[in-house]
Write a structure and sequence with these properties.
The protein has helices at 2-20, 27-34, 38-44, 48-66, 79-92, 94-103, 109-128, 139-158, 165-178, 205-220, 227-234, 238-244, 248-273, 277-294, 296-308. Helices cover 70% and strands 0% of the residues. The protein is mainly alpha-helical. The longest helix has 26 residues, at 248-273.
Amino acid sequence: MARNQRERLFGAIVAVVSERGYEATTVADVLALSGVSRSAFYRHFTGKGDCLVAAVSELLDLALACLQPIDENGDRHPGRQTFEDFFRLVGSQPAAARVCFVELHAAGKEGEEVADRIIEALAAAAAASLPDLPGAVDPKLMRTLVGGLRKLIHTQIVRGEEERLPELAPDLWRWIVEMAPPPDPLDPPRRQRAARGPAFQGYTPGERIAGAVAMVVAENGYAGTTTDAIAARASISLSTFYAHFSDKHDAVLAALEMSGAQITALAVPAARRADGWHEGVRALYEAICAYFAAEPAMVSLALIGVYGAGPRAC
């Protein structure tokens, strides 16, 4: 009985969240679709976030069981086959894929932890599928490559083009196996960055709010961010906040737009001054990395917190 209730709740929350998004989903929505009573729901879970995290954890275990490089007879599958099987699986399960790669981050810290576990598990599965490559696959490089694949999957799902993923798999496989690691370990910075003075707060209330959004989301995650916390960090009243933005999501979009404009203003002139496109690409990335090093809260918002804010922010 209990197992049946959990499975019905898992199916319901995946279906509802994939259609409406995490923030718009209520426990009542899940109960209506699953046919489970409210009292039974709360015997199993503390809330919708707890239910979603449990559902995704089970989905992850099932997916990884299908992608083992060794079959039940002890025979090894070709790495490419395992890789392409994974992309076919994602493309054939759009609701589960949207929940795992798009909506999960909105469930707060627990959702982020499961999302990290997905990356670690996929990196381990990818490394296990590449035993025939010359030399050992550097774990950091593999994690970076899997992170790039995750972002590509996320983008395709947000665009509603997840059915294209299987046809992209062969080219992505070649990208992974042909990626040469650096010949030597990267040199760490030789000196620490000097202590910085107070951060620039912005010329207008809107700019101060955008900067405050980045800092609060970096500290608390998107789910734990409130308009009260943003207003307090920006040293403004709530009425001033609502004079500029309708809610925290609106403020996050503004912060991302502001940081994107700042990066463009720094990176594009640097690239244009370079001699040739190779130097231009290097200058572009150096400028972007310099901005991120100087603005750690903004980079946390742009690369991590943004996922919790939903598809529109991404």
